[in-house]
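Work package 3, deliverable 3.1, input record:
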Amino acid sequence: MTPFRSSAAGLSLPWLFIVGAMLAVAAASVLLALCLGSMDIGAAQVLHALFGDGGGLAGRVVREVRLPRVLSGFVVGGTLALAGALMQVLLRNPLAEPYVLGVSGGAAVFVLMGMLAGVAGVWLNLAAFAGAFASMLVVFLLARLGGAWDPLRILLTGVVVAAGWGAAISLILAVSPAGKLHGMLFWLMGDLSYAHFSSWYGLVLLAVLLACLPAARGMNLLARGELQAAALGVSVLPLQYFIYFTASLLTAVAVMQAGSIGFVGLVIPHTVRLLFGGDHRLLVPVSVLLGGSLLVLADGLARTVIAPQQLPVGVLTALIGVPVFLLLLQTTAREQKA
Amino acid sequence: MTVLKAESLAVAVPGRRLCRGLELTLAPGQCWGLLGANGIGKTTLLHTLAGLRLPVAGGVSLDGEPLQILGRKSLARRIGVLFQDSQDTFPATVLETALSGRYPHLPLWGLESERDVALAREALAQVGLADLDRRRVDTLSGGERRRLAVAILLVQSPAVLLLDEPTNHLDLHYQITLLSLLTERTRRGGTLLMSLHDVNLVTRFCSHALLMVDADTLIAGSVDQVISTGNLKRLYRHGVREVEEGGRRYYFPD
């Protein structure tokens, strides 16, 4: 028995407990990731560097090299997990993830064209955001103008637009000079070394998270269908627009920092559902914390496993996430039979 | 005392008009049975009366106020709908699902209180699901899901009930007990309209009936006036016989 299964309401204390425990997991992940790197720095030194002052070279490495990257990773992971949870409820589809509607494809096409043209640095991030935003608008207009705005239509429109971007990506890769391919492939697989941490990203995530919390009870009903939700008092269309635009915005922000890192957005919300139930009032904040933790740990490993070479973090998220998730799925399936 | 009123109401789906010029008043204490052939538009009419769909002409009002000007939440506090089927892509537990009936009664940031949980448990007990409160919805049988949907309505506790084939999947016992429960509740001041395919349930539980023969022919009135072999033959294009037993009339298909 998982101790906190059913999040039957009225149990506000266990919820607080769960969120507290997940905050602890997040803090531990960040601390661990700050210890990982080519220079040997222990947890005590990391804490001293963060909360004390000075700490010499180790302190500077922690504060100026590792901390920005770890924070980027946490924000990207949390952003992707939240975007995934939102997409799943919007499309009422357990296979939905942040990239399913082509947001990342649009970003990728713009970024690869930028790389091809020799653009670098923060301009690539901006190209990613522009591409993501353009793709989001295209899907929205196509799905909306056709009349009925329903999950299946949004999903099909998005999947087809994503397929179009996929073809464009292949085309660009095919015609690109060999010297540029390595960077392009790394970007496509998702890589935090492009991330330029800015607290704005963190603020976007925090703002969306806070905006989602009062909407979360409506999301619980939306997951059971638009008509049922409307009949119980949910203003369905405004809620769907809200989810669509915030999920797309989150995805765009994540993609512009780190390319398309797979897996986090798909599996973290499911993991939270399996562990703590599907109430979005809990699912939304816990997904952010677990998503951030997973990506921070994965990035820590990506930096160190075959150092000095780095692995794409997307590979590591899947390598850690796949066995954990499958194990969880097996145990809960067995539990339900019992 | 809530009155749901349709005035010169016209309902259509793309390419087809389902009804026009419907005048209907659901007064307090009345239970209406909605009868009609498959695909005639019972569900679409029901959704229009619930404010879930815009009419092509005319309008629906609740105590004199058009449904469109009422917010979703205030509408949900006064009108409850039972749909033909339910979805559970992301299944919750039975208790959580029953609690969703409290949605329109709670503020945006509100967590359900002990009282809300007590209401949900009471509703689950009324539909015979008290022992299944921790079960996941996707492990329930068809009839159990139907009873859960009724429990949500009881928790929602609106004055107007619009039920789309409430007896679907229900066994004989629950058909009778749930319809008794809902119609008795209605007689204490609410109003109810339900689509049914069993004429004998209409004569047993309803005071009034609305027969959708075609878009231009809607027969409304008290059950005694409206339910007759002649009207039923027109309605279903099938022969119907009437039998009297214990002072009650029963209808059987030929």
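Chain A has a mean pLDDT of 87.
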